[in-house]
């Protein structure tokens, strides 16, 4: 099994690249963002709790997100591996993911760290807010998201430093995907 995590700041292009990776390598796409937005759209109790936290620019609890991931892995059959998109976001989540994958016999093969200058990320987020009307793309929420990212998420790359691969994410979608594909070919 090939297990990969897409890593990077908000609006780095993880979701865009994830669709391409999943298609090319036939991996199950586990996007915590998509899972949470689905719960919010359904109006579930979990969705209501998540919506308030996300709209303020904060991260959901590790327990909440890990439960979503464990359920998704348990219900996935006949897959060649998993692409984790937006997970892990904290070192505690990374440690739990390591345990889960060890139990399944296939550790994380690589962490693909998409790096984009912060000025470009903010521009993308504000543009996305205009197009999609996302409540978590306000100036205040953006500031909080970057603060959370630097405090809680950046240390995940250090946790995975031996399998972390940096990808320059401010090129075209094709250029970024080409670089990602080269890395995946080396680690698979």
- Could you give the distance between the termini? 9 Å
Q: Beta fraction of the residues? A: 5-15%
Structural class, by secondary structure, is alpha/beta
SS element count, helices = 8
Taken from the alpha-carbon principal axes, the silhouette is globular
Number of strands: 5
| Unreliable segments of 5+ consecutive residues | none
Mean pLDDT: 91
- The rounded Rg comes to 16 Å
Strand order of the largest sheet: 2-3-1-4-5
What fraction, in percent, of the residue positions are helical? 55-70%
Describe it for me?
- The protein is an alpha/beta fold.
- It contains 8 helices and 5 strands, in the order βαβαααβαβααβα.
Topology:
Elements: E1 2-7, H1 14-25, E2 28-31, H2 32-42, H3 45-55, H4 62-74, E3 81-85, H5 91-103, E4 110-115, H6 118-132, H7 139-159, E5 164-168, H8 173-187
Parallel strand pairs: 1-3, 1-4, 2-3, 4-5
């Amino acid at each position: 099994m090939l297990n990969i995590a897409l890593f990077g700041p908000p609006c780095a292009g993880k979701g865009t690249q994830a669709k391409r990776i999943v298609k090319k390598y036939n991996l199950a796409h586990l996007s915590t963002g998509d899972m949470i937005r689905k719960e919010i759209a359904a109006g579930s109790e979990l969705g209501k709790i998540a919506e308030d936290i996300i709209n303020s620019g904060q991260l959901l609890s590790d327990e909440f997100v890990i439960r979503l991931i464990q359920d998704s892995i348990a219900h996935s059959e006949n897959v060649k591996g998993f692409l984790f998109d937006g997970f892990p976001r904290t070192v505690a989540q990374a440690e739990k993911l390591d345990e889960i994958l060890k139990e399944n016999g296939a550790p994380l093969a690589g962490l693909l760290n998409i790096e984009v200058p912060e000025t470009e990320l903010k521009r993308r987020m504000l543009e996305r807010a205009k197009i999609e009307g996302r409540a978590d793309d306000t100036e205040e929420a953006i500031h909080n998201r970057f603060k959370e990212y630097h405090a809680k998420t950046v240390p995940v790359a250090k946790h995975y430093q031996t399998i972390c691969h940096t990808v320059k994410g401010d090129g075209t979608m094709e250029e970024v995907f080409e670089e990602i594909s080269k890395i995946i070919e080396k680690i698979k």
